[in-house]
Amino acid sequence: MPEHFFLATTTLVPPVLWYGTALFAIGLICLILALQIFLLARHSPDAITLGLLLIALSWWDITYALYWIDAPAPTDQFWVDVTYVGVVSTPTLIFIFAIQISGLFDSSRLLRWPFFLVMAIEPILTLLALWTDQWHNLFFAGLRTNYQGVILRGGLLFWSNVIYSYLLLLLSLSILAAGYARANGIFRKQILIVLLSFAITWANSIIFVTGINPLPGTDNTPFAFSIASSLFAYALFRYRLFDVVPIARSLVIEQMKDGVLVLDANKRIVDINLAGQQWLPYVAIGDSLNQLRDQLPVTLQQLPLDHDQRLEVTLERTGRVLDLQVTQIYDLRHRLLGHLIVWREITDFKHLQAQLQHFANYDPLTGIYNRREFVRLAAIELGRAQRYEHDLALVLIDIDHFKAINDRFGHHTGDEVLRYFAAVWTAEKRAQDIFARWGGEEFILLLPETNQQQARQLVERVRGKTLTTPLAAHNEPLAIKFSAGISTHTRDETFEQLAQRADVALYQAKQNGRNQTIIAELPFAAGQ
Question: At residue 523, what are phi and psi to the nearest 5 degrees?
Fold first, then answer.
């Protein structure tokens, strides 16, 4: 080890105004950065730690500056002694900061009051040893001199603090390196700058120990730590866009099944997770989205980014459906910082949704409309017919003796009868006609642009088919007979009234012996 390392003399003695001014300036910068962090990101735990670190460094710089400008003090070494509050706090705060942003630990469980109390033991003991050295000489070993701005030789407790501090810094560096290995995208850049900032502090230590310090008798350590911590703040604000959040969050994003793409204000890609890379394998960090548009599916090339939105996108080549959300990212001053695009595939969900919609509107046995959907569609057609004074007929149909079919041949045959009956009507009706299962063995048919005679002709045509092409049930021919009631609309009639008149006509058909069609009479007012 070089001989000068054990010297206790100094080349410079206060006042050194230019050196004190430089220290004061960088201390002021640290204080301003700390206040900005507390103002903009005070709800983030790691932001609070970084702010406290910058305050500790500001204390270190400014009190050390006051020493070098020879500011009035109770003793010659007063300012150096109080400087040590910042000196012993800095390694501890860096260690806590490294734990928080590395993503290797559950900070919410680890960083609690017992942990902080343990971490405070060594700094407090060091300060007590420093301030009580005159009684035990364990810190300076009785070798302290006036106007000694840097301690080049000390006692047992001094070197214990030095070793502890550098071990803590080395552990912090290791934690950050491990965090860097696990981080991705924008978070990887953030932690890389923090790691590079550490290089400044270690380079300063090497300069100090090897004796090539350009300013003998001065301690450049506060400069090194202040610059490094300012870079910490830059890394967080530059690469976190608007807040200070633990790098552990990147691990959550990486494990998401949703694709995540982050763009800056110039639409450059600053982050993409693994799920996103599977959809966009040609995308790389730093690429411009505008340059990649030709490589995107056509449905995504015109995706607007000028407002928040959520939309479903169907990829034309594969038919896969994406639920895609675009979110504008603003800072607290409402300046646009970038865009967050999150998407997930919902193809299976859309298929299921279509099936559920089908089940909600169609009868599961016959495959035709159910009663609820028929009523909805019929109300629309009735309104149109009344508005334009067009003909419209409603036919209510009931299979005759259906209970006897079930009792004789079983419910399986009864279901076959219903399916066959519905198929015959579906084949005979027009595309614009609305046919549904009304309930049990009852069916209903709405015929737009149709008068009562045309409706009767259709009913009798179907009757002929069901009688001449009977089903085979247990090797027995089974002809299907049915009764029907027909009503036609009037100008002021509701669907319920129209259906009620058809039901009355159907009842008359059954009373008259079944297997026949009855046309309902018009209301008295309509016949005036």
Answer: -60, 155
